Amino acid sequence: MMGISLPVDLNRHLRKEMVTNFAINLVINGAIAWFAFGASQRVPMWGEHGYGADLAITAFFLCWIIGAIFVAMHRSKVRKGKFAPLAITVPAWLPRNALLFGLLLGIVALLTVFPITVGVLWVFGLSNIDLLAFSIFKGAWAGVLACIVIPPSVIFGMATVDAAAPVSAGS
Q1: Three-class SS string for 100-157?
Q2: 4 exposed, middle or buried (CB, 10 Å; 0-12, 13-18, 19+)?
Q3: Contact (CB, 8 A) for 83 and 6
């Protein structure tokens, strides 16, 4: 994963967090889609009640929230000794603040995952989707998105070495 060798217990923890968050997002985001678009049986890609804007908002806020929470939560776990810190060099350009790191993830998702998703749906002619199908799709899509954001957020939260800081020969 990202060229980093992680301890077995951390790999197990990441898998548990990813499975749990996939399930949570599947249910919650699927239900949100169902209730948000419940007035119509078909959901268009664009327009006043379109799913395009919904996916953009979800990509941004889901990644921002999950990123910020997981960075802060794992920094706390390292401070409390529940996990050993990871001696990983963090690029100097990354924001150290958990909220700003999450914001960066949200912006990246909005600029990459969202247009790719909408583009693929458009290419396959899904500019107008059945409500149940969209609700299932959105839940699964949000679950996968959470699984993508969790590992870098956890690793960043547990990292201890700044690229700007000098590293001793013994590190």
Answers
A1: HHHHHHHHHHHHCHHHHHHHHHHHCCCCEEEHHHHHHHHHHHHHHHHHHHHHHHHHHH
A2: exposed
A3: no
What are the angstrom distances between the C-alpha of 127 and each of 54, 115, 118, 121, 143?
A: 14, 14, 9, 7, 22
CA distance 129 to 62: 22
| pTM reported for the whole predicted model | 0.87
Report DSSP state, residue 162.
E
Per residue in 39-59, pLDDT (tens digit) is 778 998 998 888 999 999 999
pLDDT band, very low/low/confident/very high, at 168 (cuts 50, 70, 90)? very low
Contact between residue 88 and residue 151 where contact means Cβ atoms under 8 Å apart: no
CB 138 within 8 A of CB 29: yes
N-term to C-term CA, the chain: 21
Nearest to 107 by CA among 53, 59, 54: 59
Reported as a single tens digit per residue, the pLDDT across 1-35 is: 456 677 788 999 999 999 999 999 999 999 999 99
